[in-house]
């Protein structure tokens, strides 16, 4: 229960998690370009990352997510802004003094050191007693399921095993926050999915706050307790995977996360809209049209139906039917020259979906997402 009080206090757990978490306040960072211009990598970023959560920063290349991660780590100095961990301000501390650790895509393992020595390296640099180092190395190897491999060199391990060594080395120092900069990008699809499961298990087991950077939408949705979608140096939406996917705040988020149909529709005085020559329909919430009297509505292809199980949205003609094994990818041409992408789940044999057939496209009003007017 998110609002249950923490034992020994009268404050809700969510409040305590915020107080002990990572706070970024109005962070700004610019870089000079070779042409003499300036790029705003971070344009006033403010975020609250809760203690003990798996937080994902998602966005295309150049959106600011890695710059922010490096600023948290102490590898980039902010032009302005603040970073707090709990009640402690850390943005003025050198990287080695911050209670955070980072795992990179490249693993950065020492090729001449064994697995055990790689894991122990950071502890040795901090002059941790040898007995405690041995204990922590054994704990970490068990945690990442590398028992019995302590004497091997990195070159004798698979890519997935090397990534586990990097994770074990980072966690051995018992950081309060673990930063992960696209750590799975170098793995093939099967290994990547296996390591996603492993990362979720490690985060739940250790309780360490994970801050994970990726450009992979599926990876973000599968990993994050919450996700921040970045664009042009700011997080444009922060929420759970369901909130981000089902209720995107603008066209960028709806387009970047999964696939969407974007319908530019007229809005009448009663607040009703229509698609092409379809019926006038009510939206589930009050909306405002843009200056030209139109509105953009997003709807996911899998939320559209052709079997009559939802209210009619519009009629059209099948222009493309592609069998994908688990479903059909269908495109419906409309009378106004536009088209809709539809995902049809089985059983679909009885629908007789062939190119040229006339169909009725249906949708529940709750699955139609009006997008903010972009001025």
Chain-wise SSE layout:
Layout: H1 13-19, E1 22-32, E2 38-49, E3 54-58, H2 65-73, E4 80-85, E5 88-89, E6 100-104, H3 115-125, H4 130-143, H5 159-172, E7 177-181, H6 189-206, E8 209-214, H7 217-223, E9 226-231, E10 234-239, H8 241-246, H9 251-256, E11 261-266, E12 272-273, E13 281-282, E14 294-299, E15 312-323, E16 328-333, E17 339-344, E18 358-362, E19 369-370
Helix pairs in contact: 3-4, 3-5, 4-5
Question: If you had to describe this structure to a student in words, what would you say it looks like?
Answer:
The chain has helices at residues 13-19, 65-73, 115-125, 130-143, 159-172, 189-206, 217-223, 241-246, 251-256, and strands at residues 22-32, 38-49, 54-58, 80-85, 88-89, 100-104, 177-181, 209-214, 226-231, 234-239, 261-266, 272-273, 281-282, 294-299, 312-323, 328-333, 339-344, 358-362, 369-370. It has 375 residues and is α+β, with helices and mostly antiparallel strands. The protein folds into two domains: 17-246, Rossmann fold; 260-371, OB fold (Dihydrolipoamide Acetyltransferase, E2P), CATH 2.40.50. The strands form five sheets. Strands 6-7-8-3-9-10 form a six-stranded mixed β-sheet, with helices on both faces. Strands 2-1-4-5 form a four-stranded antiparallel β-sheet, covered by helices on one side. It has a four-stranded antiparallel β-sheet with strand order 17-16-15-18, with no helix packed on it. Helix 3 crosses helix 4 (130-143), helix 3 (115-125) packs parallel to helix 5 and helix 4 packs across helix 5 (159-172). The longest helix is centred in the middle third of the chain and has 18 residues, at 189-206. The two termini are 40 Å apart. The mean pLDDT is 90.
């Amino acid at each position: 229960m998110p609002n249950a009080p923490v034992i020994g206090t009268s404050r809700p757990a969510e409040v305590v998690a915020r107080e002990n978490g990572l706070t970024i306040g109005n962070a700004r960072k610019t870089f000079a370009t070779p042409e003499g211009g300036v790029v705003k990598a971070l344009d006033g970023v403010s975020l609250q990352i809760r203690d003990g959560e798996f937080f994902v920063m998602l966005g295309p290349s150049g959106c600011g997510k890695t710059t922010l991660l490096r600023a948290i780590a102490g590898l980039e100095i902010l032009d302005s802004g603040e970073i707090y961990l709990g009640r402690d301000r850390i943005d003025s501390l050198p990287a080695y003094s911050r209670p955070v650790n980072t795992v990179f895509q490249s693993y950065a393992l020492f090729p001449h050191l064994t697995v055990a020595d790689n894991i122990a390296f950071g502890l040795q640099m901090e002059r941790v007693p040898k007995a405690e180092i041995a204990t922590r190395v054994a704990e970490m190897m068990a945690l990442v399921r590398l028992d019995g491999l302590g004497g091997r060199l990195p070159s004798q391990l698979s890519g997935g095993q090397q990534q586990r060594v990097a994770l074990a080395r980072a966690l051995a120092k018992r950081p309060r926050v673990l930063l992960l900069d696209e750590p799975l990008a170098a793995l093939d699809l099967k290994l990547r999915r296996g390591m996603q499961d492993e990362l979720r298990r490690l985060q739940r087991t250790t309780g360490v706050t994970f801050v994970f950077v990726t450009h992979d939408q599926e990876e973000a949705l599968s990993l994050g307790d919450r996700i921040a979608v970045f664009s042009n140096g700011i997080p444009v939406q922060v929420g759970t995977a369901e909130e981000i996917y089902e209720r995107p705040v603008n066209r960028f988020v709806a387009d970047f996360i999964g696939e969407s149909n974007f319908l530019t529709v007229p809005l009448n005085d009663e607040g009703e809209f229509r698609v092409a020559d379809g019926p006038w329909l009510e939206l589930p919430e009050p909306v405002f049209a843009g200056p030209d009297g139109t509105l953009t509505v997003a709807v996911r292809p899998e939320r559209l139906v052709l079997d009559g199980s939802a209210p009619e949205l519009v009629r059209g003609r099948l222009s493309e039917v592609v069998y994908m094994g688990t479903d059909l990818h269908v495109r419906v041409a409309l009378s106004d020259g536009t088209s809709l992408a539809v995902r049809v789940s089985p059983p679909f044999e009885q629908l007789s979906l062939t190119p040229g057939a006339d169909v009725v496209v249906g949708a529940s009003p709750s699955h139609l997402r009006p997008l903010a007017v972009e001025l």
